[in-house]
Amino acid sequence: MNPLPYSTTHKLLHWLNAGIILWALLAGFYVALLPVAADVKHWVAWVNVSLTTLMIPLFIWRCLLAFRRRGRAVAQPPALMGRLATAVHLLLYFTITVVLVTGVLMMERPIVVFGWFALPQPLQSPALTGGFHTVHIASCYVLAGLVGVHVLAVLKHALAGQPVLRRMC
């Protein structure tokens, strides 16, 4: 069975989300794990909060497209590797959701998006925001691992002559 082609919108949303996720993970781990000046940490936090806030509606749209497409694509039960790929993609979507939701709920100040607009701080309790911060950090590590697995799977397919990356470009 040939898989359904991806729409231009699906591809665009994939790469926009991927770019934002890669930037936010790399920049976030950079300032969290390495000795960095306070002004750099502040700037990275400002950019990450702005980008990921703008990503939320794009990610929801991407999920809706992906699940609608998946619902149309099932003509026969997939083989073991297909089920594994589906499971990893679902885990990616779930983990991204956890990272985004906890990222919002951990905020201890209004969410300012590139100075264009601000959203109020969702929670006032330091205990709650601290708990969400802890979950956010842990889920970022999980997401980084899943992104690594995803990239390795694309490389494996490319080396095996299967054009999965070409289908998403």
How is this fold's topology laid out?
Layout: H1 8-33, H2 38-73, H3 80-105, E1 111-113, E2 117-119, H4 126-159, H5 164-167
Helix pairs in contact: 1-2, 2-3, 3-4
Family: Belongs to the cytochrome b561 family.
Pfam family, one: Ni_hydr_CYTB
Transmembrane segments: 12-37, 43-64, 84-107, 135-159
Task: Write up this protein.
It is a multi-pass membrane protein. Its main location: membrane. The protein has 169 residues and is mainly alpha-helical. It has five helices and two strands; from the N terminus they run αααββαα. The chain has a two-stranded antiparallel sheet. The longest helix has 36 residues. The chain starts with 7 loop residues before the first helix and ends with a helix. The model has no long low-confidence stretch (mean pLDDT 91).
The total of beta strands comes to 2
Distance between the termini: 21 Å
Spatial arrangement of strands, main beta sheet: 1-2
Q: Give the H and E element order.
A: HHHEEHH
- Could you say which overall geometry the principal axes of the C-alpha atoms support? elongated
- Output the number of helix runs: 5
The percent range for strand residues is: under 5%
Low-confidence stretches: none
Main location: membrane
InterPro entries: Cyt_b561_bac/Ni-Hgenase (IPR011577), Cytochrome_b561_oxidase (IPR052168), Di-haem_cyt_TM (IPR016174)
Organism: Pseudomonas quercus
Keywords: Cell membrane, Electron transport, Heme, Iron, Membrane, Metal-binding, Transmembrane, Transmembrane helix, Transport
